[in-house]
């Protein structure tokens, strides 16, 4: 239903059900409430520029593209406190902890043209320009800024495959557009393997470049058109020495010609003095220049910039519409910005003709679905993908089909681990694509070949060369003398195996279920009852010595964490972990130790991702994200409520520094959304959500089946931080978990809040969320 129509139809609709009256409403469009600046400073690593939900184009300013030794804070190309902009490029990750992209950098210039970016500390040393944040406009689908050194007003918007630019130049100065194919986020010498640039007879500018970055051998092509004719153009190769097909000669030679090739290509397009704004539109393709042109022809029709901006805004209004939230404006801005960030990735990675580049670097064709890439699996399986199952289940079908297609094209028979633009990086650990697929299946998402999906999952989990799966299958753990981070890898593999087992069980594949259900218990092989921590073992059997539970770093027992943080990672068997730790009281006591510890943050100075410390708890990195909810599993739900308030108060906020750690393609933001609503998917691939407490007074989830699930809390203020009682559709809810079916059925979940904790709610074992050792 049209969002505007639904608002008028439902704003006053009262439905009586389950003996109670529930108001169902849909609020004003939410895109205007988004503030893309949140997270653009500090370690949030998000970009402020223009994109549409899950779009191929992320058109955003780049303030710096430093070399790989200093690139961490510029993973999205932009840092809020930087003084200059070096241009606007068309591809960015949103909140990643690693970096690449920054393709097709464009810079409008009024007056004299310099061919290199220059030094940000030396005004006029290059083509970069100073800017003032007061001139920036950051909105969902739109970005604008004034480039102070040129007095050029730059405006950006986007649709699925095209980035749109509008440049208003000052009078009396010639207008130029510089296109630089050299810069790349996470840059280093020799990253650009080869590039080409040409101006075609109709004025269309096209080109490709191949890079050996995070995904080696990545090729990206583009097509660009302007709404006004060039008066002249110069194409440069800025290599100090040009070597091509056996020819060696000097670089730095301008070419007033139609084509240029090399590793350091720059184009300058001249337009003379302009009386009207110059418009440019750019499409990309990972396949070919011809496909980029086809993308531009189909998705880049016309020259109405304002219409494109309006369409981008409406795309965001539609994507944000499934949740309405009441509350103060500051809360709503925080909420809808988090939801906005959770809806950027995965990114469309397919051309209008259905072609895409696969992990084998070959061209493939998607039949009947859109192919998506940009998969930060280690992060997004936890909350971002479960959130999309609730809000955009139709999109999840394409996500699952994309994962299966990528596995079919993998030379190793592997599902994606950390992939973008179709290519694999092998970054991070585990094989968490299986959890995304299993979660979708368990929650009723169909529209893909389930048998093929399960085979893809099993193939991934049995590829022995990946992360020493061979020893894991043989020994029941990943030996640390054979594979770094063997402790956490054992734990992650065991959870993923459990996810495979759940899908196999639901499909009636009992042999597959038995195999992977057994492997799901392998976490016990790295549990050390003597120290009370998870530890890595040697291939000969003993735990590795010496052992320091505070130690973290590459080569240690754990991935981006220490023993205090990873010892809680058994989401599939929390009940078993409680027993291993000595029972409910010992378990919650150790959780209290984790949160209440006095920790010097400098201990993690060599592990950039470990941020947002509350004791040993590190909210800025994903291994900690489920921990606050674990009190629910041990009968002390009131402590979950208290810890969540600590986290929400300290780890999120307004402004550029509003994200305490990398957003990681929407995971940090999705955690916020679930927690604000009052529940969280501790164990994706189950059908349960652990209940916390809401951080909004009222919210409504408009489900794809036409029903609405409403959450309300009263009194809602800091004086009443604890849950007194909960009702579901007017009836008392004694359990501290929701079933997925509870939400899909619609109705109302109401929290009565109070000043003091209700220590008896959720205390009974039957009231706790399920885990492998306590199936109900």
UniProtKB/TrEMBL annotation:
Molecular function GO terms recorded: hydrolase activity, acting on glycosyl bonds
Ranges for domain Glycosyl hydrolase family = 291-754
Please indicate if the UniProt record lists Hydrolase as a keyword. Answer: yes
Q: Where is the signal peptide?
A: 1-26
Annotated keywords: Glycosidase, Hydrolase, Signal
Domain Glycosyl hydrolase family 92 N-terminal positions:
34-285
Q: What class of enzyme is it?
A: hydrolase
Family matches, as SUPFAM superfamilies = Six-hairpin glycosidases (SSF48208)
Q: Name one Pfam family in it.
A: Glyco_hydro_92
The EC code for this enzyme is 3.2.1.-
Q: Superkingdom, according to UniProt?
A: Bacteria
Q: How is this protein named in the record?
A: GH92 family glycosyl hydrolase
Tell me which species this is from: Dyella humi
């Amino acid at each position: 239903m049209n969002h505007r129509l639904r608002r008028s139809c439902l704003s006053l609709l009262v439905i009586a059900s389950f003996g109670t009256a529930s108001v169902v409403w849909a609020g004003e469009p939410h895109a205007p409430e988004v503030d893309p600046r949140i997270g653009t400073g500090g370690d949030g690593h998000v970009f402020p520029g223009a994109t549409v939900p899950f779009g191929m184009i992320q058109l955003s300013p780049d303030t710096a593209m430093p070399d790989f030794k200093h690139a961490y804070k510029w993973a999205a190309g932009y840092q809020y406190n930087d003084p200059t902009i070096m241009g606007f490029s068309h591809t960015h990750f949103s909140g990643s902890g690693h970096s690449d992209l920054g393709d097709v950098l464009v810079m409008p210039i009024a007056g004299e043209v310099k061919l290199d970016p220059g030094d940000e500390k030396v005004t006029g040393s290059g083509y970069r320009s100073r800017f003032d944040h007061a001139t920036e406009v950051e909105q969902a689908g739109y970005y604008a800024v004034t480039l102070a050194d040129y007095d050029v007003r730059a405006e950006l918007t986007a649709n699925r495959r095209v980035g749109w630019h509008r440049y208003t130049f000052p009078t009396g100065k010639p207008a130029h557009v510089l296109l630089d194919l050299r810069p790349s986020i996470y840059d280093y010498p020799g990253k650009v393997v080869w590039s080409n640039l040409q101006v075609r007879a109709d004025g269309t500018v096209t080109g490709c470049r191949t890079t050996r970055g995070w995904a080696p051998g990545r090729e990206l092509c583009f097509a660009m058109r302007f709404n006004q004719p060039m008066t002249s153009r110069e194409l440069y190769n800025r290599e100090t020495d040009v070597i091509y097909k056996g020819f060696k000669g000097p670089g730095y030679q301008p070419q007033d010609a139609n084509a240029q090739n090399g590793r350091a290509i720059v184009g300058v397009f001249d337009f003379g003095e302009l009386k009207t704004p110059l418009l440019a539109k750019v499409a990309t393709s990972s396949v070919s220049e011809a496909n980029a042109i086809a993308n531009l022809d189909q998705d880049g029709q016309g020259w109405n910039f304002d219409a494109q901006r309006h369409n981008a805004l409406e795309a965001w209004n539609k994507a944000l519409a499934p949740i309405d939230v009441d509350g103060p404006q500051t809360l709503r801005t925080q909420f809808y910005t988090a939801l906005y960030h959770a809806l950027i990735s995965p990114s469309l990675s397919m051309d209008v003709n259905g072609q895409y580049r696969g992990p084998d670097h070959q061209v493939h064709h998607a039949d009947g679905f859109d192919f998506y890439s940009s998969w930060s699996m280690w992060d997004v399986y936890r909350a971002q993908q479960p959130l999309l199952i609730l809000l955009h289940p139709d999109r999840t079908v394409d996500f699952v089909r994309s994962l299966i297609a990528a596995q079919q094209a993998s030379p190793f028979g592997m599902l994606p681990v950390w992939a973008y633009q179709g290519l694999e990086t092998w970054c991070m650990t585990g094989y968490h694509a299986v959890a995304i697929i299993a979660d979708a299946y368990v929650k009723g998402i169909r529209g893909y070949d389930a048998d093929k999906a399960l085979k893809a999952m099993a193939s991934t989990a049995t590829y022995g060369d990946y992360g020493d799966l061979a020893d894991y299958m043989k020994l029941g753990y990943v030996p640390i003398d054979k594979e770094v981070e063997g402790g956490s890898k054992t734990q992650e593999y065991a959870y993923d195996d459990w996810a495979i087992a759940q899908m196999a069980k639901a499909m009636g594949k009992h042999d597959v279920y038995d195999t992977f259900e057994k492997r799901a218990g392998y976490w016990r092989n790295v549990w050390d009852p003597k120290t009370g921590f998870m530890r890595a073992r040697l291939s000969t059997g003993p735990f590795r010595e010496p052992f320091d539970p505070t130690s973290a770093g590459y080569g240690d027992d754990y991935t981006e964490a220490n023993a205090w943080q990873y010892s809680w990672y058994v989401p599939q068997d929390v009940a078993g972990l409680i027993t291993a730790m000595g029972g409910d009281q010992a378990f919650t006591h150790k959780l209290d130790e984790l949160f209440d510890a006095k920790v010097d943050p400098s201990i993690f100075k060599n592990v950039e991702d470990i941020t947002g410390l509350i004791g040993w708890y590190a909210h800025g990195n994903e291994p900690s994200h489920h921990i606050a909810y674990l009190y629910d599993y041990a009968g002390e739900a009131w402590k979950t409520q208290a810890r969540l308030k600590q986290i929400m108060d300290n780890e999120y906020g307004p402004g550029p520094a509003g994200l305490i750690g990398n957003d990681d393609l929407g995971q940090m933001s999705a955690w916020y959304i679930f927690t604000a609503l009052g529940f969280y998917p501790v164990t994706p691939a189950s059908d349960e959500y652990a209940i916390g407490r809401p951080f909004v007074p009222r919210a409504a989830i408009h489900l794809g089946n036409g029903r609405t699930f409403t959450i309300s809390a009263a009194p809602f203020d800091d004086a009443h931080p604890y849950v007194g009682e909960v009702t579901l559709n007017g009836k008392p809810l004694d359990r501290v978990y929701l079933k997925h079916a509870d939400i899909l059925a619609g109705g109302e979940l109401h929290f009565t809040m109070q000043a003091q904790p209700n220590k008896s709610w959720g205390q009974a074992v039957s009231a706790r969320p399920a885990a492998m050792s306590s199936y109900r």
